[in-house]
Amino acid sequence: MNGNSECIPTGLAQRLQAIRLVVFDVDGVLTDGRLILGDDGQEYKAFNAKDGHGIRMLAESGVQIAILTGRNSRVVDRRAADLGIELIIQGRRDKLPAFEELLAKTGLKAHQTAYAGDDIVDLPVMRRVGLSAAVADASPLVRQHAHWTSRCKGGQGAARELCELIMQAQGTLEDRLARYLR
After folding, report:
1. Does the pTM of the predicted model rise above 0.85?
2. Total of domains in the chain
3. Is there a domain that residue 85 lies in?
4. Interval 68-117: pLDDT, tens
5. Burial per residue of 139-178, b for 16 or more beta-carbon CB atoms within 10 angstroms, e otherwise
């Protein structure tokens, strides 16, 4: 998006305006989905710096951020700490009960949340939230059930695209970008 003021369809805009929490899956959404395992047992993931900056801007605009992933990884803890994300649930392959825990912890309703996913394990949460987002390279069934699908692939700008879309709909994007144009 990069600050472009494209027209958001009315129904989608209403969903976006209600969002107070965005929950991101990790593998395939914040990363390209590859799992790189070293001989030493270490797990490596590549995160996109532009996605990270979009997440920071969205958080600065007042929207809470959470991570919900089926795998456990110290790398995810480190990336979350780098981005100031405190709501992290790892190792939960059954994501719907974990999502309900996030709602209880934040006091928000499901319609105030967005979830970004890429695979069928994400569908139970995606079918519950106010805005379900799929990355461009998500499985066809996930894209079919998404309210919105990014143009970018997972780990390659999809999170940034979603963050900017939410800020655009909520009227905070121009303010977030203006500080870089002064």
Report:
1. yes
2. 1
3. yes
4. 999 999 999 999 999 999 999 999 999 999 999 999 999 999 999 999 99
5. beebbebbbbbbebbbbbbbbbbbbbbbbbbbebbeebee
